[in-house]
Write a structure and sequence with these properties.
The complex is a heterodimer of chains A (163) and B (806).
Chain A: E1 2-8, E2 11-17, H1 23-30, E3 49-52, E4 55-58, E5 71-73, H2 92-99, H3 109-122, H4 128-134, H5 146-161
Parallel strand pairs in A: 1-5
Antiparallel strand pairs in A: 1-2, 3-4, 3-5
Chain B: H1 7-10, H2 27-31, E1 45-51, E2 57-63, H3 65-69, E3 73-78, H4 79-85, E4 107-108, E5 114-120, H5 123-131, E6 134-139, H6 146-150, E7 165-173, H7 176-181, E8 185-193, E9 205-211, E10 216-221, H8 226-237, E11 244-248, H9 262-272, E12 279-282, H10 285-291, E13 297-306, E14 312-324, H11 332-336, E15 350-358, H12 372-390, H13 394-401, E16 410-411, E17 417-418, H14 423-434, H15 436-448, E18 452-466, E19 484-491, E20 497-501, H16 510-522, E21 529-531, E22 535-536, H17 553-580, E23 587-589, E24 595-598, E25 601-607, H18 608-616, E26 631-637, E27 652-666, E28 673-683, H19 690-709, E29 740-745, H20 762-778, H21 793-803
Classes of the chains: A alpha+beta (163), B alpha+beta (806).
The structure holds FE2/S2 (inorganic) cluster (FES) (2 copies).
One FE2/S2 (inorganic) cluster (FES) sits between chains A (103-108, 140-143) and B (201, 253, 507).
Amino acid sequence: MQLVNITINGKAFEHEVEPRLLLVHYIREKAQLTGTHVGCDTGNCGACTVVYNGKLIKSCLMLAVQADGSEILTIEGMSQQDPEKQKNGLHPIQDAFLEKFGFQCGYCTPGMVLNTHTLLKSNPNPSEHEIREALEGNLCMCTGYQQIIESIQYAAEKMKAGK
Amino acid sequence: MTTLLDYDKLFVTRDYVGKPLRRNEDEKFVKGEAVYVDDIDMDCAHVAILRSIFPHARLKKIDTSKAEKLKGVLAVITGPEVVAQTKSVPPRAIAKPLKQYVMAGDKIRYLGEPIAAVVAEDRYIAEDALELIEVEYEPLQGVTRIEEALKPGAPLLFEENGSNDLLHDTMTHGDIDKAFKDADLVLKEKFSVHRYSSTPLENWAMIARHDKGNGSFTMWANDQQPGRSVANISAVMGVPMNKLRLIVPESGGGFGIKLAIWPYMVILCLLAKKVDKPIKWVQTRREHLLGGTHAPDCTVDMEMALKKDGTVLGISVIDKENDGSFIHTAGIYSLIKFATLVGCYQIRASRMELVSVAANKGPTVQNRGVGKPTAIFTLERMMDIAAKKLGLDPVEIRRKNFVQPEQMPYTTPSGEVYESGNYPATLDKALKMADYEGLRKMQAEARKQGRHIGIGMSTGVEPGTSNLGYYYTSSGIPEYMGSGEGAMVAVDYDGNISAMIGSVDTGQGHATTIAQVISDMLGTTPAHISVDNTLDSFVSPSIGHSGSYSNKFNDVDLGAVIRATEKVRDKMLLIAAHILKAPLSEMRFVPGGTAIAVKGDDKRQMSFKDIAGYAYKRITMLPDDMEPGLKEIAFYRNKAAKMPNKDNFNVQLTHSNSAHIVVAEVDAESGFVKILKYVIVHDCGNQINPGIVDGMAIGSTVHGLGATFLEEFVYDDNGQLLATTFMDYLKPVAAGLPHIELGHMHSPCPTTMLGTKSAGEGGAIGSLAAVAGAVEDALTPFGVKITSLPLTPEKIMNAILRTKVI
Ligand code: FES
Ligand code: FES
């Protein structure tokens, strides 16, 4: 057993964990944040996407002990991002996914939203091509991506307008 | 508008139905707050499953003593124990008395078949324990290919059957002999389509708890067909249905692949009996790809009889489906193909010989489109090949053969009834959207520059609402017939409305769609309506057909919602008339008012809350003969379902149609294909929520693109599966996909209440043929013909350089 300290969505967590515990399982079971999903556990689907020290990662590919001392953002933390832009309890990106039908079963959505959040920070004006490239690591089995892309374009507009 | 219902009579307002209403009820999905099975907050022990490392073997000995001793292990169960405690899996279509159990006790038939399971304090320990189970196998020669499996002397999956032929039948409709006698041209082709699956992003997941006090079980599972699952579990375990409670929370996608997860629920229930706490099993992706069910690979020998002018007189098909190793669903892919056998065309004679083949491959279950993608692929390929032979444009040969709008409703030789649709206009619209003539010019230009650009198309029917009697190959009257669903609608004490149906949602936004319909029916707003998507088999208004499959939602599920809402509506009108002392005929719903008023006198009105107050609380003031309460259940069935009869039967009850036009460029140096343009015009009748329908049309098309280019369960000859992760079973990603242009037609369906037709499988059916047509057209300079899928760069290069056939 090993002690880990991880800050998730601004809240400090401390647990004794087995060295083999995956970060995604830490987030889901120890921190009890179940918006982060598992779709493959081989790093291919992106359902487990979180933002780790500002970078997108797949949390099934990292051990909890490796994340000791890190800061993580999960989908549940989107409610605290860009506080001035939140409306009715929704971040503009989340609102965009609702507005443009950017999800069906919703299983990929947390990963998609966090991916969008990271993308728009570095590129507030992405072209369709850039969006498609950015989504490379996130599979959606339902939508065929098109309405996700429209959601991201809509979110980009709204984020700019909100400035 | 030709629908079962008069919209003006049915709806008080027209504010919601037909509009792309936001899925506001589903905010939880964008916030990470949706609760899928694995998210249920329950103190569970965890299950891991030991799977056979041989595709074909006998289980000689299995020793679990070491595993049982591992710290943290709570219980172990083995195949032989499961077999001793359960009955054989019930087959749906095949009539042969074969035995197969939810876990292998003796004979192992596919790589990854469960042979034991462990429950432990956590999943990591459970997996450790699997390593400690000692298994002695007697490996057997395996067989994976259809031709090999059907040869005399082939290794047998079910020895008692004497062959690997599980179902074999020939059905002839119309004068097929005359069709071939009168033909100017008979074309013959052999097609094959590989094994693939729609792989929902959420794997199978389930929890089981045993209540020792009364011997009952509670299960939570992402089951797609709860109506049948509980019945199957009951039959296999010998536990009455009133002791089996199934709860289905949110589900992360289905596409058919979660229709038969119940065998694993049986395993969990048996294990749950051994421990004192709920137990959970979440399938890994590897397990999912191994045995989380596939669409069968198939071969189709097709003969087509044509006149010189391109008129198709008849088709004769030998359809062999490699149904792998699962008798529960074997045979149904061929049977459901009757829904699309003659496609959009006036082909008046058909013959189909169907064979369900057993082989050492994973179980097959209904995957999006169920056989219809391959039926349309083969038929549309044949149309293209015929056009080429006769020197016709692919558009021309299709136009020549289309069923015409004035022939609707049109009955095919086998008895399928196409209720509505305008096939020529659908194609015309697609051609216009794609600028077909411009494309042909562009293609000719490109060819001059040495670029290989092709144009492909498909026109097909996209049936929905299965008439389950199509399992008429089983002995006697089939256990399930027709299609139906149940719904409950209530106005609560506070005037708000709650609704549920007997089915589940796997991502189609049922809650929003149902709220749209109820809002317009009662003159209220979706903000007043809460639709609970959770299924609880002890509470939900389910029937044996209940589930999310065959696009039945827009038909029978909404039919049940409408019927239940009508009951509530009529009762509210009676109460209001009684209390306001006005004639019933004078009572009106106030549009958008969530209230009922006396006609012409808006001051005399009662809110839903007032009315509900009488129904639930001031019950002494109700009319004498009225029961209290405002909660109504209704069940509904589509009456177009025919009785099972091989000569005249409708396999499905609604028939959407579409035209796909694809422009593809092939790099003749590498074999890579780029889709330059993708146009779809589809007609699913009236749409309740076009935003949701668009998503279905595009998503299903991308499933088809994945199947056409990327996805394949590759087995070696002995039955080892070579694609067990998303690194070797490739799925489409956003990059590289075309932007799909979507056009709509709206031919209302006269046999569904709202004029709606199937919307969820469409693109998965039409895309395979359209893409293949485009690639073949691009490869015209090389004389390549496409008769198989997938279209991998390797196969394309091989065809260009050597074989000329893919
Ligand atoms: S679960 Fe981590 S990438 Fe799929
Ligand atoms: S919405 Fe279902 S996987 Fe993306």
